[in-house]
Design brief:
alpha/beta, Rossmann fold, HAD-like_hydrolase_sf, phosphoglycolate phosphatase activity
Amino acid sequence: MPYALAIFDLDGTLADSFPWFLRTVNDIADRFGFCRVRDEDIEELRHASTREILSRLEVPLWKLPAIARHARRLKGEAASEISLFAGVEAMLRTLADNGVQLALVTSDSEANAREKLGEAAALFSHFDCAASLFGKPAKFRRVIRRAGVELGQVIAIGDEVRDIEAARSVGIACGAVCWGYAAPAALRALGPDHVFGRMDEIADAVCRHRRAD
């Protein structure tokens, strides 16, 4: 069946927030009592799973909700510093023009997401935001129900290992982008349905899949 719904992650997928994260993470670490990230640690962490990252940085799991709330607040304050990747709006518009419903599932707040997306926010039919670190599967299921589509017609597109894991747990296709937080090799190792090296490849793949069906 053709893809009728594309569920996007925001940070690292549509929005170039990794530089902001690197500038901010050690302030958050000091505030919440986990290990600081050294420059020499970054590449190794980009190859690790989410659980491995939490373990290596000794992040107290019980503090995750408070950490997430604090990070969302900081991200809102820094919204003007975080731009969309080049080609995002054109890609989203191509999908919408070809009849693909667009959804956004992100750990960020809806207000922050809409501000980052700007005019492109109007292209999205569904927002389900403030996802917990491992809470995307439930949000995927909720968005799919709202969209009224079959699982085989859905693709989730993100930049982290947990995005692939979430899609697999729900039984939908997954696409991984190579310009975000996780290293491309770490994403490819999980065998996602699609790996995107350039923004324009997303619309090409989704629309080609629709025509093929």
